[in-house]
């Protein structure tokens, strides 16, 4: 069934795995930057680099780390970014499998997941332009056939926050990453800036595109291996990646985590706001909140889309109540969706890989 689909993220088996404090620190550090070296991680955690490698191997075997993802700024490469939510009639098993398989394999879909609430399926996708987006919407609706009831589309104006692990988990682990020295993790330059729809479009040359394409396949590939494959010097590869970060093309190197294995549930909160005179304050609140992992400022029926994590419904409700109390005049209405299962997550689907690699 759907559990066998390629790219599936959340495990249908919700058994929580047990981790000790060292494992939690390693996961927390890697969530900041998947390229951090075992040597550096060992210094932070208090282990030898060989022990760190062994623990990372075991964590992957447990299915907590699925793979690593290159997070790019869609706006900086001239793309539009949308979210779509589908309401469907009750699908039988075959219809559900066919639709999810189509969405997972779609070359421009970044994320799709089964959600509970007003909508049934959530989708994030990128498009070359409005015409391309409209053609994809039609394609998705046609694929739903007679099961289609309604859809909601939102244009994402910012990628405000993009964290594959709740900041709260890192805070609880006690880990701190303070790497200011320039190395091949590029942590000294990775500031996780807000990506905005009006960001200056970067014009990458063939070498830049090749580097992005190679990092898309393996975000933690060594600079030495990249240098050999692309046939340019080590220092040039390092300089090019640094430039891509400084120009807000590369935003982060994130591990893709099966977070339900560490007891985290995810909820999508769609928020409609009043006149946003305190928009900057609202934005800063979101950036600093330890239970908000992803945040998108949107255009459409809703003004914000927040991905909030919690260990249970009560913890999530506390976060929501806190948010509403902090901005009683700003939040006009909201809608809650629970993320039941992620089927796909990537910032560089096949359509973009082809665009970068040619």
Q: Short summary of the structure?
A:
By secondary structure, the chain is α+β, with helices and mostly antiparallel strands.
List the main descriptive attributes of the protein structure presented here:
alpha+beta; eight-stranded antiparallel β-barrel; globular; 12 helices; 358 residues
Uncertain residue segments: none
Give helix % range.
Answer: 25-40%
Rg for CA atoms = 20 Å
Approximate strand percentage: 25-35%
Report the total helices.
Answer: 12
Strands side by side in the biggest sheet = 2-4-3-11-8-10-9-5
Q: Termini distance?
A: 34 Å
The count of DSSP E runs of length 2 or more, i.e. the number of strands, is: 11
Counting helices, strands and paired strands, the structural category is alpha+beta
Report the biggest beta sheet as strand number plus sense, adding barrel if it closes: 8 strands, antiparallel, barrel
List the helices and strands in order.
HHHEEHEEHEHEHHHEEHEEHEH
Overall shape: it is: globular
Global mean pLDDT:
92
Report on this model:
The chain has 358 residues and is of the alpha+beta class. 37% of the residues lie in helices and 27% in strands. The chain has helices at residues 21-32, 38-45, 49-61, 93-105, 130-144, 167-173, 206-217, 223-230, 234-246, 279-288, 313-326, 350-357; strands at residues 65-72, 80-88, 109-116, 121-127, 148-162, 195-196, 250-257, 265-273, 292-299, 304-310, 331-345. An 8-stranded antiparallel beta barrel has the order 2-4-3-11-8-10-9-5, surrounded by 4 helices. The protein has a two-stranded antiparallel ribbon with strand order 1-7. A hairpin with a 4-residue loop joins strand 3 (109-116) and strand 4. Helix 7 (206-217) packs across helix 9. It starts with 20 loop residues before the first helix and ends with a helix. The mean pLDDT is 92.
